[in-house]
Amino acid sequence: MKRSYRLLILCVFLLYGCTKADPEPEFTLPPISAVGANTLGFEVDGRVWVNYGQRCFLLSGCFDNKIQVDYGSCNGVRCLYIWTGYTVRGTRDEGFSLRIDTVRGPGIYTAGTRPVNLPPSTIIYTPNGLTFSDELNSIEYVSLTQNSTRIVLTKLDTVNHIISGTFEGRLSNSLKPNNYVTITNGRFNVTYTD
Hints:
The protein has 194 residues and is mainly beta. The protein has one helix spanning 2-16, and strands at residues 39-44, 47-50, 54-57, 61-64, 68-74, 77-88, 92-100, 107-110, 128-134, 139-142, 149-157, 162-173, 180-191.
């Protein structure tokens, strides 16, 4: 029993014992392109944000913050969902996602209207929009109001599986709508698999 207890303490120390924060790197935005380079970046309140680092989980280990893309059928229509993360140990653990609920081809997609007759604290995503989360402080910012975000799909190549575009918007704290972040100069250039 003592041996199991010591092993458990050692595992906890190895996973969480290093509390020294890593220095936060400085980044530049990836170029706006449409060649399937698997890049995504934007500025959040003036700070450059790109996918970076690893997220670690107690039971499943650590994983690189790669850009994930899901372009497929949702209730009989094509939808797009892109997500990734930014992690600097001890300093930042952030997530980002972009969604379009009905992809019609290249064009402009603005945040839809929030469903009516719901309490203000109910978290409901608009049909098209962005989500930015600050995991260390348990805060999520979302496209809550109509036209709060704009996504421009510039390329949808279903032969070479390339999707690219730009985005921007003002995202509200889902529990405190007067608290927000501003995302500017957003761009993505990704590939997907069927």
